[in-house]
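FIELD: query
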Amino acid sequence: MRAHTRAGSAAGDAAGDSAGDAVPPPGTPALEFGGDLTAVCEFVAAQAARHGVFGNRAALLVVAAGEVAAHLMGHGMTRYGAAVLVWPQQAALVCRLHTAAEAAVPARIAARLRGQVEIVVRGADVTLRVPVPVVPREAGS
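FIELD: result
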């Protein structure tokens, strides 16, 4: 398990409105993981806090990432390498789990999270998106 940063697009959080279209900004921290579910959950929680997301929204993302990571691990999809990244997107926090193999998320996980976490599976990526309230800045801030 290694933490590092990933290169991304200069478009960053402006790239796409859905989770599947999201592109991590340059320098987004990533955690490479194999079978350490605790490390995945701790990393996602720490990144949520780093981006100012706490409470229920952070917990939703940690639970969703944990469930997806556990599924990927249980089906051997992390055997050849996997990474998790978390970054802010306009009015949302995005988490992507990337594996070396084609990914899948069982319907039971998607159904349990429906309406709370957007889940998009594309190739070897599972992207989770949790809406977060936008706090208006006060004048002069």
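FIELD: remark
The CA atoms of residues 75 and 114 lie 22 Å apart.
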